[in-house]
Known about the structure:
By secondary structure, the chain is an alpha/beta fold. It has helices at about 5-10, 20-25, 45-55, 65-75, 90-100, 115-125, 140-150, 170-180, 210, 240-250, 260-270, 270-295, 315-325, 350-370; strands spanning about 30-35, 85, 105-110, 130, 155-160, 190-195, 220-225, 235-240, 300, 305-310, 330, 330, 340-345.
Amino acid sequence: MKVSKEIEQLIPYKPGKSIAATKKEYGLSQVYKLASNESPVGTSPKVLAAINEALGNLHRYPDPNSTELKQLISSQSNVTPEQVVVGNGSNELIDLLIRTFCQTEDKILTSASAFIAYKICAKAAGVKVIETLLTEDLKYDISALISELQVSHFKIVFVANPNNPTGTYVPESEILKLLEATKDLDDTLVVLDEAYNDFVRVDDFPNSTELIKRYKQLVILKTLSKVFAVAGLRLGYIIADEKVCDYVNRIRNPFNVNSLAQAAGLAALQDTEFLDKAREVNWSGLDYFYTELKKIGVTYWPSQANFVLIDTKMDSGVVFEALLKKGIITRPVNAYGLPTHLRISVGKESENIIAMQELKKVLNELNNNN
Length: 370
């Protein structure tokens, strides 16, 4: 059986190691997963109640248009329902955007060491990927993106803001430069992937839902997997110009968002008390990480997400394996071109303490053995 050369050469996405697999492989009774940027506070009780109520209708197909959810999102974002498309996680929406607006041999533009799904979805569709390098402080280099746009045509520019796996962000002033540079390009979209924007605590982060009123080429990508803690149900959405949404809806599969996810989304987006709690737990965890990492002399990047990126100054795979044996699952990011770096998600307070204690021991052991 033959497939395209793009699919033949494609390296599949490698998810984080599971708790069950780690327990079995290393004979452990207790494992702490700080690898996949999941919520340490669990899912909102209001969301669980909404899911429970929706269970009685599982024999029915879900609303194919996610009507109530679109209305709520549009109301909260001050856009029309026609400017919203709901998807089976943000990954589906990335794939839909590329399939809708790109043809074989078209090009997308993004950065190296950015969310790897852009590259995977593009290559699977036969679309070329051009990547600029991050800046020295591991931020998107907006000037480099603009330079590429001046010499070549790209159908989509993907900017993860904040970026995974670095946790760094692009301020509004830089985003405005990119939007101004693309506003007169008839056939180029700028996608701001804001999967982690609810964790941001800086003053100069862009207000994207205001910018979308001024820039027709702007597409905002959101997920409910992170701060809203419904990763297991897969739920995301885009906000964009009505024409963009209309085209995406033409190829979006009917019933792509299941009824439990729709019920969960409605409850999650209205539970501001839970949202505030999740943010506070995350910010407290990050501050603890920073304090402990400074103590043991580990380089890290201040994060606007729910994880921290560290530089182990050695093969991160070795550190990853050593931590696994102690029941701590982290995430090496060598696939992102960062071979000595580990990403550590914020967990519960007790998990964060254990993770830092074990990291210190592991680094000491490895450095003493070299």
